[in-house]
Structures are given as C-alpha cells and as structure tokens.
Specification:
The chain is α/β, with parallel strands linked by helices. The chain is 35% helix and 28% strand.
C-alpha cells in the first residue's frame, strides 16, 4: 500500500466574508505527481500557501510528512507563481542564497546545484545573471533553488507559465525523474496538456474540488467522443454552430483554426455524425472528413464548470463595418534580417499574413519570435529586408498606420501603478476612441475581465491571469485592422482562454489580421496557419493539420506498470526528445513504420522487465510536431 505524504481533511480558508477554500479533502501518495487545475480564483494558490506553511488555515487538518504544515517547512520546497529570483545575482549566487536560508552547508549546496544544473542543461550558465536568462531558464533555475535543500515534498504553482514548449517538456521530464526517485510533487497549472502528465488531477472550482481522479478516468467520466470536422469555409461553418449544438447528443461545439470540434455523447456518436453531415450539407458547406478522437481534459474541464462560470461572455460593442476585401496582404516580411552585433536574431525570414487571417508564430525562447513581431509592428528597425503593415509598405512607423494597429506585449501591456480604470482611460485616449464610445468600451473590458466593481484596484495587485484579460481588452478596444498578440493567454485559465479566442475569431471574421505567439501549442490549433521559427528561421508553415500531416514517423503510446523503468529502457540510445512521460503513459516518436515501431517498443519494454498493458499508435499533437521539427532543425544546423 502506498505511503501517504500529504493529507488534507476539510480544509477551509476565509478572508473576511470571502470563502477562498471551502472544505476540501484529498491525499497525495509519496512519489506521486498530483495536479490541480481550475479557473483563476478557484483557491489553488491559497491551498498551496497553506500546505507550504506560509499561511494558516481557517479550519481543517493538514498533515505533511506526518507533521502540521508549518512544522514540515524544512522538508517542503515551494516554487511560487511570482518571480522568485534576484535578477542582479548570478545563477549560482541565487542558489547559494536559498541554500543559506535553508541552513544547508555551502559545499553541499554547490554539489547539488551542479548536479541539477547539469541535469537541466544549464551548467554552462552558472555565472550568468538571472536577469539575462530566458523565461524557460529562469523557471529551471527557480526549480533548482527549490531542490537544493532536497525537500521531500515539492509545491509548484504554475511553474511553466511563459516557458516555451521545448523547455516545458524538458521540465516535466525532469519532474517525472524526480518523482521516480521518491519526491512528492503537487503542481497547479492552467495548461491542461500538462495535467495529462500527472498521476492524478483535482479539478477545483469556487474553493471546492469538483472532481479528482487519473487523467484517463476524468476523460472517461464525460462518456463522450470528440469529432474533428474539417470544413472548407470556417466562417460560414461558424454560422451553423447553433444548428450543430442543437443536434441530439451534442455536448459542445468549438471552433479551431482549420476545423470544428464537436463533442458527442458515447451513445450518440453515429447519429451525431450523420446529423453534422446533414447540417453542413443543408448550409452548402463542403466537409473533408469527420474523424473521431478521445475527449481532452479541456473537454472535461469545460463540461464540469462552464455553466457556473460566465466570465468573458460580454458582447463586444463593434462599431466599424466589416472589411469588404479579405485575403489581401495585411502583414508581410520580405527576407527580414535582424543582427545585434555578430548575433543574427532573425535570419532571412519571409511570411505573408492576410486580412481576416489568424497566424501563429511559434518558437522556443530565443528563437526570434518577439524580435520579429517588434520589427513587423514598427517598434524595431530591421537590419535588412522589407516590412508591410496594415497593407502599407515602407514607413510602417507613421501615425496613420499606428492608429490601425493593436499590440499586446509579452512583458509590458499595462501600468502596474495605475488602477484598472486609469489604465483603460489612458489606452482609450491613446487609441483616440471618441468620447461618446469610451464609456461603453471601457465597461465592456471590465465585464469581459470579470472586474466590474473592482475598477479602482491597483493593476499591479492583480494575479497574472486577470491582468492578461485587462491587457487583451485594452489592445482590441479600438477594433484594430492589425492585431499583434505576444503570448496573450499566458497564465489564463481554459474558460477565459475560450473567451479570448472567441473574440479573436470575431475580429478575424470582420477582417482584422491577427499575428499571435504562444507557448501553449494546443492553443495554436486555433490559428488558421502556423509558422515554426528556430534560430531566427522559418522552418515549417501551413495549417495545423497540414503541419501535423507533414510530420515524419509515428507516435507510439505505451501504458505500463513502471513508468520510470520504461522511460530509462526506451531512452537508451535515442534522442531525449523522442521519449516523454505523460502520467501513467509514455509517448515515443519512431521513424520506423507503425507495426515495426510498436513491435520494437514492446520488445524493448519487455526486455527491461516492464509489464506492458498496451502499445498503440496515437495521433501527433502540434507540440509533438513542433518539438520534432525544432530538434531536427537544430541538428541540421
């Protein structure tokens, strides 16, 4: 029987009349990765602060390693949401500072630090200032700082927000290894593909646990299948959404960049498929295929709490007419270069984005995405090459063009020392929104953000997800012709993320050209086309489906009794990116034909003494394709 490392019984936390946590109970076994998912304000961070011993509970029993939480602090590591590093200290100085606070001997800290830095691929950077690290490297350093005291329990509150897909997968593979060594890990995440990597997941809402089980059991709990419907004209298909949603047995309909997802009850898959075909035929819409797939954790999440969470449903007060001519060039890069001294940040990059199109520019930290966006929107002069913005070529910095552009920056979008309403008034003035429209537009942003009544709150005091909502509303309040969104939903929960993309689609349907960067590649499925960037070059481009179908090899999914042993067996003699842990399963990318890949994988596992429950072919995700493309490009370079 598994040893319990964390036990929580009827935990509550009140802030005056606000009930942040409302009587939750759960247990976490030693060596388990236990995930928390839920919307902003669900009570996840409050729960973590109580478990870390930095906050007292209002009532309930909390047992960490057989002790009250405050007495177990020496054996608990805690990585908070907020930035926990000192930017003007080096990597090693940050680690030593934390080690000193933990009263860990210097030589022990140095030895452990070098072990973890090497494990995370950061050993060449121990003398670099923390402020000069990429976002992914900063998160890895924060994790090293949390590990140097060798805690028995590790609390991670949204540890990979802002981290690129390559670093994110490396981070989670590191967690899987630490878990196999006996470390108990509790992690809160807004990314539901990450929740798939946990042994069990608790879905929190309004301070309570709505569901708690393994990812597989949670997916099965909604008794549904997901139908991927490829339609030639998504804008017209969007108009048919009410008719699709009205089909008996349809639980949800969601639009993506090149297809619709229809969630159908298990008992009604065949009649729903027929019903979808009838609706599309009646609307004169050609469809290429309807492909069934298992539901995602996002389907579970939305089905569980969407009815109780109405944030983001406010209708945008559009005033500008729809653009008549869609499909003409709105944003273009023509052989774009950007050099900083001898370093080439952007290397001969060309792309063409049209009015009415949503284009996703995807790449690892340091790939050149933000530099490209800054050149395209006129904030940075290219070293060579030409830029087209809002259909105009040449002087993209002119005032007339700037008024037609919306920009949500990755790092700066709002003034933290102003109130929410002061920020909105400021941006309404910058975008020259007429006085008679200003009040209506600002009230829409407050409604969309779920912050009406809190408009006099200092912006800097908002959690990251709430701040992103206000920043997004500010960027689109003037109905721009061209919209740049640099990681717009970083740290935003899945319900709010759906609201963001609903609005982005509305803007695109009315003619706005949208260029978006994101590290969450399930979200990139929302784009009409995507481009992968590596070392400043565009290495792949197409619709999400085209990019996935161009992937070489096959993805094999293994369900086994000992994940850590299976990971070691399958990783031996192959590139690390080809094998990754997803909770109780492993994903393996093989260049062999599918039958040979399955046979080889099964043989390698059985030779290592691993009991195999199932080995089957699975569908590539966009993240799988992205990581494979980037790794191959780096090897080729």
């Amino acid at each position: 029987m598994a040893e319990v490392a964390v036990r929580v019984d009827r935990l509550t936390k009140h802030y005056g009349t606000v009930e942040a946590v409302r009587g939750i109970s759960f247990e976490v076994d030693k060596g388990e990765i236990f995930g928390f998912i839920g919307p902003d304000g669900a009570g996840k961070t409050t729960t973590f602060e109580i478990l870390a011993g930095v906050m007292r509970a209002t009532s309930g029993e909390i047992d960490v390693l057989g002790k009250p939480a405050r007495e177990a602090r020496a054996q608990t590591g805690y990585l908070t949401q907020s930035f926990t590093l000192y930017p003007d200290l080096t990597v090693m100085e940050n680690i030593h500072y934390v080690g000193d606070l933990r009263l860990t001997p210097r030589q022990v800290v140095t030895s452990r630090a070098r072990h973890y830095l090497a494990a995370f691929g950061m050993d060449p950077f121990e003398g670099r200032l923390a402020s000069q690290l990429s976002g992914g490297m900063q998160k890895k350093l924060a994790l090293v700082c949390a590990l140097v005291s060798e805690p028995a329990v590790l609390l991670l509150d949204e540890p990979t927000t802002g981290v690129d897909p390559v670093s994110r997968r490396e981070f989670w593979d590191s967690l899987a290894q630490l878990s196999s060594e006996g470390l108990t890990i509790l992690v809160a995440t807004p990314y539901l593909d990450e929740a798939e990597r946990c042994n069990r997941v608790a879905l929190m809402h309004l301070g309570q646990i709505a569901q708690l089980d393994t990812p597989s059991a949670l997916r099965n709990s909604i008794h549904a299948q997901r139908l991927e419907v490829r339609v030639a004209d998504l804008r017209r298909a969007q108009l048919a959404t009410p008719a699709l949603a009205a089909i008996q047995g349809v639980l949800d309909v969601q639009r993506f960049g090149d297809h619709l997802d229809v969630l159908a009850a298990d008992s009604a898959v065949e009649p729903v498929t027929a019903g979808v075909e009838n609706v599309l035929n009646a609307a004169g819409l050609q469809h290429e295929r309807i492909r069934p797939d298992e539901p995602s954790l996002e389907n579970v999440f939305v089905a569980s709490i969407r009815e109780a969470n109405s944030q983001g449903e406010a209708e945008f007060p559009f005033v500008k007419p729809r653009r008549a001519a869609l499909g003409t060039t709105a944003i273009a890069a023509d052989h774009l270069f950007k050099r900083f001294g001898t370093f080439v940040a952007v290397n001969d990059l060309s792309l063409d984005i049209r009015f009415g199109e949503i284009y996703g520019l995807l790449g690892a930290n340091g790939a050149g995405k933000t530099t490209t966006v800054r050149m395209l929107c006129g904030l940075l002069e290219p070293s060579s090459g030409a830029v087209t913005l809002a259909g105009e070529r040449g002087n993209v910095r002119s005032e007339s063009i700037r008024r037609r552009v919306g920009y949500m920056s990755q790092k700066f979008s709002l003034y933290d020392d102003l109130t929410i309403i002061e920020n909105l008034e400021f941006f309404a003035g910058v975008y020259e929104i007429p006085a008679e429209r200003r009040h209506t537009t600002i009230q829409w942003v407050l409604d969309f953000s779920g912050l009406r009544g809190r408009e006099h709150t200092i912006t800097g005091s908002l959690p990251g997800g709430w701040k992103q909502r206000v920043a997004f509303g500010s960027a689109i309040m003037h109905e721009p012709d061209v919209l740049f969104l640099d990681e717009p939903t970083s740290g935003v929960d899945p319900i709010a993320r759906r609201a963001f993309w609903g609005l982005i689609n509305q803007l695109a349907d009315r003619g706005t050209a949208v260029l978006v960067t994101t590290h969450y590649l399930e979200e990139a499925e929302q784009c009409n086309r995507v481009g992968f960037v590596s070392a400043g070059k565009l290495i792949a481009e197409g619709t999400p489906t085209q990019v996935k179908e161009s992937q070489t090899g096959h993805l094999v999914e293994c369900r086994v009794d000992n994940v850590s042993r299976a990971m070691r067996a399958l990783s031996a003699g192959t590139q690390a990116w080809r094998v990754s842990v997803f909770g109780d399963r492993l994903h393996v990318v093989s260049d062999a034909d599918v039958d040979a890949a399955i046979a080889q994988t099964r043989a390698a596992l059985e030779a290592a003494g691993v009991h195999v429950f199932e080995v089957r072919e699975a569908n590539f995700s966009l993240e799988d394709v992205f990581i494979g493309a980037v790794q191959r490009a780096e090897r080729a370079a």
